[in-house]
Structures are given as C-alpha cells and as structure tokens.
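User: Rpn family recombination-promoting nuclease/putative transposase. Structure?
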Amino acid sequence: MSERFINPFTDFGFKKLFGEESNKELLIDFLNELLYDKQHITEITYLKNEQMPNSPLDRRAIFDLYCQNDRGEKFIVELQKVKQEFFKDRSLYYATFPIQEQAVTGSDWNFKLEAVYTISIMDFVFNRFQEGNSKFKHHIQLIDTETQEVFYDKLTFIYLEMPKFNKTADELETRFDKWMYLLKNLSRFHEVPPALQERIFKKLFDAAEIVKLNPKDQQAYRDSLKHVWDFNNAVNTAIKEGREEGREEGREEGREEGREEGKVEAIRETARKMKAKGIDVSTIHSITGLSTEEIEAL
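Assistant: Predicted structure:
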C-alpha cells in the first residue's frame, strides 16, 4: 500500500482510531468539538456494541461505537458508507436501545432518562435533491413546529455529510473544521499538515500510521480496505447498469428505479460474497449497512 495513514472510512480504521481504550482521548476531543455548545466530556466508557432485543422475536442492533460519559449520557457513533432506503427510520430505531436500557426494574421509577446522542459520519449526501446545499452538519432534535422551540433536548441526532465538506487547509476556521478536514483527507496525507500540528491530532496521526501497526492489524486493515473496494465497485457497477437500463427505457423514472434497484442488489451480493468467505456478521453489517437478520438470511 502506498498510503502512510489508514483510511478512517474502513471498519478497521474507524474502530482503531476511535474505538480502542488507548485512543479514547481522540473520541472525547471529537465529541466535545462536535457538541461544543452542549457538552464538556472528560471521561467515556466503552459499552457493548451489540444490543439484544427485549424479545427473541425482535431485531437486535450492532453499533460501530457505543459509549457513555461520566454523567451516564449515551453516545452511538456510526460510520455510514452508503445510504439505505429507510435511513432515518434506522437511526431512530437504534436510538431506542439506549433509551430502553435505562428502564429501572423491580422498583419504583419516575421515567427520568439521561440524554442519548446518535452521531452518523456519512460518506454520502443525505438527500440527492439537495446536493447544491453546502450545509454538511445537521443537528436534529424534537421541536414544537409552531414556535420552533426545542421540546425535548435529551434525544439528539447529528448527521455529518462528509462529501459536502470541501474546505482547504487555508480555510479551516475552527477546531471542528480541523477534525472534519482530517477525517476526510487522512489517507491522502504523507506528512502531518501544518494546520494539524496540535497535540491531539499528532496522537491520531501516530495511531493511524500503517507501518506502526502490528502484523495482525496490518492484515486486518488490508482486509477491511479490500472489502470497501469490492463494495464500492459493486455499487458503482450497479449504478451504471441502472442508468443504462433507464436510458434504454427512455424514461427518467426507469433510470432512477433501475439505479436504486441495482444498488440494493449490489449491496446484497457483496454481503453474500463476504458471508461465503467466513467474514463475521458484525463486519458485514458495518460495511454494507444491512441488518443482521438480512445478512443471516442470505
């Protein structure tokens, strides 16, 4: 590999940088900058990322990262590589797990909840009909639609559309800008840029240097990178075939429908091949976004 630093948009890279105990300072700093007007996190504890349902008939959930701060507030941090048909529904469903697990059993409970944050770092544009809109950070809470006042501030969804962040090194204004710039361009760097010479970023570069990984981790990274290449190639091929099918039919509707159907089938086929190679369900889920039930049914 010609890259010096790992790609954070791989399952291995993302969890290596933000999901290991030795690197949790990186996650704390990123969350504090993301929520600069809401939080000051001094400590986090990693929690089990596989959430089991209350009933055997219900679906489970697997988070990329799941942690809580010293006040008991919960954070789901997810890397999203491809948009799903019901992406918003999925976000809401995942948020129900850290809500329900706060229920107190066997004694009186007044229903008091600690805050839950779902953070999605997305390698795609959230809404294809708003591609001209440069807004890349979306902070979502329950509001009163008439007054526009926040009705409930303990449930927050933050979506980061990484393709829309196009600032150069000379245009970085805030520490959060620097985080976004680093995440988007990390695997392209060969040296630590002058704009990222702060201690926290130097620590990330040190953790991300490929030659410093042990042989087992280097192989795991190569495998994770190959999965992403295969997945992207399958999706791009499906999109191309969908466009061609639409052109043959001569209708915009046909082109759009063919593109979406081809993309979904490409995702399933990629998951099917990964499963056949013995790759675990959690990794397949992280790369494709398919539910564990869909993967197990392939």
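The beta strands are 44-46, 50-51, 61-62, 65-69, 74-80, 116-122, 137-143, 150-161. The first strand starts at residue 44 and ends at 46.
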